[in-house]
């Protein structure tokens, strides 16, 4: 028997699959996924297992909640400990983020040409239950950090297997581009 949270993630993944298959336009699919994710986060009975909300002492982590067998999308639990942040980076795909716990600070940048210093556009703090379309293929450069005094946990849905996707990071001072893969973290077992 599946626990309530595992069953809910499974049902959410089935819904995301249907939306990905139905909407060819990434703006439509992300808007629909954002609505569905907001409903999941509003369910007070929904909980993620402790193994998928545990912060790493040295860096942020992404735990796989679901990866579509065909790589069309993935669902992750992303965890930042207090003081942790990402570099300025892109995703090379669309993405939707909903905050499960803590506060996530997102600093958005204009997508630069290679070698151009990223232009800062603004920042926003996202709180539990809030959902945002964090990226589309043409608008996806930001940096993320834990903004509170408790770890931040977000549920991230991407239009690819984000744990294997090559992505760009940007040096905020020079504009230099580096390619990286943000690999999946292995959840702790008890």
From TrEMBL:
CDD domains tied to this protein: cupin_CDO (cd10548)
Gene3D superfamilies, per the entry: Jelly Rolls
Protein's recorded name: Putative metal-dependent enzyme (Double-stranded beta helix superfamily)
Species of provenance: Tamaricihabitans halophyticus
